[in-house]
Amino acid sequence: MTEEYREREIKYDAAAGWVLGRAEQLTVPLDSVYFDTEQHDLLAHGVTLRCRTGQTDAGWQLTVPDGDARTEIRVGPTGSHTTVPKTSPRWFPVSAADYRYGTSSPCTPTAPRTG
């Protein structure tokens, strides 16, 4: 199943001395593997392609610029989190194994991040 979310990051300034009230800490373990071409074509266009594993937010995520916001398109886990799927979900314009964004280079893992 494909899900689509639009997100906008807004930053605010707080008055000097302002303190955030008590907040409950929530830790959610997950691992992310990011993909791009050797030439970093996705990064150059503001696009992020990653696969996450963990208790929540697992699966493939493609984030693309959308005006002053971003659109994140998600597809559930496909079995491998280190190889771009060979199937072609709606959000991949071409075969995902050869996913390209203005380039002829395939996407490969760039840097695993845990957090």
Low-confidence runs of at least 5 consecutive residues: 91-104
- Count of separate DSSP helical elements: 1
Number of strands: 6
Strand share of the residues? 35-45%
Binned, the helix content reads: under 10%
Q: Given the helix and strand composition, which structural class is it?
A: mainly beta
- The domain tally reads 1
> Using only CA atoms, what is the Rg?
17 Å
How far is the N terminus from the C terminus? Answer: 25 Å
Shape: globular
In round numbers, the mean pLDDT is 75
Tell me the series of helices and strands, N- to C-terminal: EEHEEEE
Strand order of the largest sheet: 1-5-4-3-2-6
The main pleated sheet reads as: 6 strands, antiparallel
Can you describe this structure?
The protein has 115 residues and is mainly beta. It has one domain. It is built from 1 helix and 6 strands; from the N terminus they run ββαββββ. It has one helix spanning 41-44, and strands spanning 2-7, 30-36, 48-54, 59-66, 69-75, 108-114. Strands 1-5-4-3-2-6 form a 6-stranded antiparallel beta sheet. The radius of gyration is 17 Å and the shape is globular. The two termini are 25 Å apart. Mean pLDDT is 75; it is low at 91-104.
Question: What's the topology here?
Answer:
Blueprint lengths: L1 E6 L22 E7 L4 H4 L3 E7 L4 E8 L2 E7 L32 E7 L1
Antiparallel strand pairs: 1-5, 2-3, 2-6, 3-4, 4-5
